[in-house]
Task: structure prediction
Amino acid sequence: MIVAIKRIYDKAGIIDGKRVLVDRLWPRGVKRSTSNVDLWLKDVAPSDELRKWFSHEPAKWTEFKKRYKEELNGSKAFIELVHLVRTNDITILYSSRDDKHNNAIALVEFINKAKSSV
Result:
């Protein structure tokens, strides 16, 4: 199955599959009624403490991913997401302005490693 990543502010596409928001907070300026989000898995997002520590500083990226992976270890929401990926094309949605250092990028990396083991 295909896993794509897209900013929630980008237009939904017909090939997006299930659209899954992976932020803990609902994105500013996005109406829930018109967001085209099929599932909001806020429990798969980094903790507030980790998110604030990281603050999208590229120098902290490697350590962020390590800490984030530890937070997801045994997470029911992460397991649910991996199972969803096995049976559906999905688009992981995020709101960060940084398109190279965000939880969605790390999450897809973790999903790809976990697909065969969860």
The longest strand covers residues 3-7. The CA atoms of residues 82 and 111 lie 6 Å apart.
